Amino acid sequence: MRNKWGGLRLVPVLELANISKHFGAIQAVNDVSFSLEAGEVVGLMGDNGAGKSTLVKMIAGNFRPSHGTIHLDGKELVMHKPADARQNGIEIVHQDLALCNNLTAAANVYLGRELRKGVGPFRILDYGAMYKRAGQLFAELKSETRPRDLVKQMSGGQRQAVAIARTMLSQAKIVLMDEPTAAISVRQVAEVLNLIRHLRDQGIAVVLISHRMPDVFDVADRVIVMRRGRKVADKKIASSSPEEVTGLITGAIEQVA
After folding, report:
1. Where is the ABC transporter domain (predicted)?
2. How far apart, in whole angstroms, are the C-alpha atoms of residue 254 and residue 66?
């Protein structure tokens, strides 16, 4: 198998095999399989209740599958908590971003992973090192976000840059993004889509959960559509259309190969 750059890659970075999840009598996800390559952006679409969030929470370690397996770089991955996913290079950017408004951009990037300097009990926070590295990450993302800016003063696009920089700090292999362009301006949407492109260009795989059809067709390589807990389509963007995806989401089109 060759990756999108033409080089040989023996296994996908992520592979889900026959994943299911039920909560009592409720079948939230039913027998879903797909793979994800490094540097690939996959749009995950479906109506409310289609199973998207449950599927992503299994990849992120929040839920354990009732059935099926998850493989990372060809090795089966069993997770009991979100920290297990993070330790294996899987990061999630939640819709609410989970940022602290009263802290700086750099402090949010390093939240829970603060750098310290000194010896023994005299160690203190190394603000200089955190500001410097956060600035480098924002520069890599080509974001106007500055390390010393307070999050409460930022635009929606800048807040997304902070959340994404946090995933880059941990050298993520896979970033799961939950509705990153919801409720922000057109200009900020363009900023966020550029951030996704920068992740892709660095070889990071992205799963983009979105209801915004133009965004998915702008940045994604493939689109996966779910309905009532099942995968009803997994197609290259170039061979699909917004009309087809809409039909799949609503049920006007039953399923496509």
Report:
1. 14-253
2. 26
174-178 β-sheet, strand order: 90-93, 174-178, 205-209, 41-45, 222-227, 230-236
* Number of CB atoms found within 10 A of residue 115's CB: 14
- Nearest-10 Cα torsion for 142, 147, 152, 156: 10
CA 86, CA 169: separation in Å to the nearest integer? Answer: 11
**pLDDT per residue as tens digits for the range 70-81:** 999 999 999 999
What domain range includes position 177?
14-96+171-250
Residue 3 lies in a domain: no
Task: Evaluate if pTM is beyond 0.85.
Answer: yes
Measured CA to CA, the distance from residue 91 to residue 164 in angstroms comes to 9
Nearest to 156 by CA among 95, 78, 246, 69: 95
Distance, in Å, from the CA atom of 75 to the CA atom of 14, rounded to the nearest integer, reads 9
Q: Assess if residue 196 is contained within a domain.
A: yes
- The CATH number of residue 48's host domain is 3.40.50.300
Whether 6 is covered by a domain: the verdict is: no
Q: How many domains does the chain have?
A: 1
Q: How far apart are the first and last CA of the chain?
A: 20
Please indicate, yes or no, if residue 141 is contained in any of the structural domains.
Answer: no
Q: Are the beta carbons of 94 and 62 closer than 8 angstroms?
A: no
pLDDT one-digit tens code per residue, 144-187: 899 999 999 998 889 989 999 998 888 899 999 999 888 788 88
Distances (CA, A) of 27 to 49, 89, 252: 11, 28, 22
